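To close the chapter, one final illustration. This time we ask the reader to focus less on the individual chains and more on the assembly as a whole: which components sit near each other, and how the overall shape emerges from the parts.
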Amino acid sequence: MSILVDRDTRVVVQGITGTFGSYHSQLMRDYGTAIVAGVTPGKGGSIVNGIPVFESLIEARDECGAEVAAVLVPGPFVKDAVFEAADAGLRMVVCLVEGVPVKDTMLMKRRLMETGTIMIGPNSPGIVTPGQTLIGFMPGHVYAPGPVGIVSRSGTFSYQVADELTKRGVGQSTCLGIGGDPISGVSFIDILGMFEADAATEVIVLIGEIGRTAEEEAAEYIREHVGKPVVSMILGATAPPGKQMGHAGAIVTAGRGTYVSKVTALEEAGVPVARTAGEVAAMAYDVLRSRTTGDA
Amino acid sequence: MKLLEYQAKELLAEYGIDVPRGSVCRSPEEVAAAWDQIGVLAGGVVLKAQIPSGRRGKAGGIRVVRDRAAAETAASELLGTTLNGFPVGELLVEELVLIKRELYLSVLTDTSPAHPWPLIMISAQGGMDIEEIAAAAPDSLHRVHVDPAYGLHPFQGRFLGRHSGLPSDKQVMLVAAVGAMYRAYWENDAELVEINPLVITEQGSLVAVDAKVTIDNAARYRHKDLKGAEIDSVETRAAAMGLSYVELDGDIGLISNGAGLTMATMDHLALLGGRPANFLDTGERILRGGIADGLSLLLANPQVRTVLINVFGGGVRCDVIAQKIVEAVEALPAAHIPVVATLHGRNDEVGRRILAEAGLPGLRVLPTIDEALATAVLLAKNGAGGPSGADAGRPGGAR
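The assembled structure is written out below.
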């Protein structure tokens, strides 16, 4: 088991004929992802990496049974791509693109409320169920199947955590990045609920960062609704307030979303907070070992 | 992108919101001329330093003057100074407004997962910061979320009007101003439009005495005509190179990829007793000049005593990144400060081998992040001479 995606998930890549789209669709396919179609308006009928390209998402859905869209079109075209996915009734969109205007994300999220389509991102590194499927930019070889679910706001750092886990012989159920933008689709809370219900996930790793209050809200949710052990890390301990740390959402303003408030909220919910990738991996490892040896 | 006050007011005026009569001046002579046009009639003017920063009043950037000579003197005192870290090159000279009441009015993008919608806030207690209002008079603050699919409804405007504390004949003006402010926010992809104070004058009109507007950077491509504050800083020069950079006060220059990994590396350096000199996320520029541009930025900072490159290859391959690092370090002047590098992720072993085999004396390659960070901390502490440059070849190294 896993959450959201597995080896049977049939994926369509929006923007597959672009440099980015063709490069990453090849990597995903190499990993084993069932990329069944691509969509680029004006390029329908062509073939990229052996994958058929269609004019529209509805054709890709009807001809190839696509159910999840990976969005790899440039920022200004993301809103159109996501609205098309919602219209085609796809189950989920994975929005991998950086630089989507916040107003567009707001409208996308509003539209998806009506259709029930799940959105990961924007500005997400993607989602991987190790050994089965990978939709995004993650380096597949650092992951291995296993019992740890990872949910993160950042991309590259979550790869490092997975790498540290795998090196310790601990695999992952599903790993995903919810994205670094001020507004995103699925939240920590949504994913925590899914991991809690997923039989394959035994330990949850939550990687947050400064800015906004998603981690504080997650801590409250964990206290009420999550029985599985959660270990965590918050990035940006040394970031000065008022300065945006790369991600549009990673900024401490008006005292909101500080490192200390997040760490305090998590610790009060019984979630230990690590300070490095190695430490958070070791925490997850220790929790698993104590459970299997019964000396918790 | 932050708009300067006068730019924000020009935008609001286009949408029909009244602002004081004013003129942007760059010299005492221009201020004197503005006095002749505005001050004589109004009996006084306010000189306001145009910097992209709040709390200008407390920093001495706002002066009220009541004659021509005082206006010129204040202008020569303000122009050319630095306030809150920003040089004062422009003054907004405005007619003195006779204030009867001050309100607070704003619209911003609420990013909370429950309501990621535009949020309009009003308070009858204007003139203070929103934080001060929330602390001192929370009951005066009223909020309305706008469903982005439908926009602002008239009943929502009326609700805000009723909570403005204004008599009903003035509420009509306020409702119109709320609608205009919302349109300015929505049509320009603003993150924030704040009018504080929004003033009822002695003459009974509604005037925006101060205004802040911030535009979503990701949406600037569709508002090319919109002008904002032009800030000359190393951050904006880096942004022009496609790099996300923030200067800090330490001595270890840092180049990394991904905002999260960069923050994590800063935090980890601090745990080891090191002090990062900057945040630098190359993002997708990593293979397109990001490393070389990043190095040139860091080496221009005299505080930097060593450079740490910590990269995790996700979408990009470490062997290709390693080649970029070698080229960038080879291009540095002969006696440059030491560069410490570590690579992980896709093809990392090949990448580390390429770095080690390049045989560059100023480049040390470490197999683990812990060792790389510890080495950078040590080099920064010991100065550029540092321990021997043999780290690349030591046991457990990348060879």
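The longest strand of chain A covers residues 145-152. The CA atoms of residues 126 and 234 of chain A lie 20 Å apart. With these observations in hand, you are ready for the problems at the end of the chapter.
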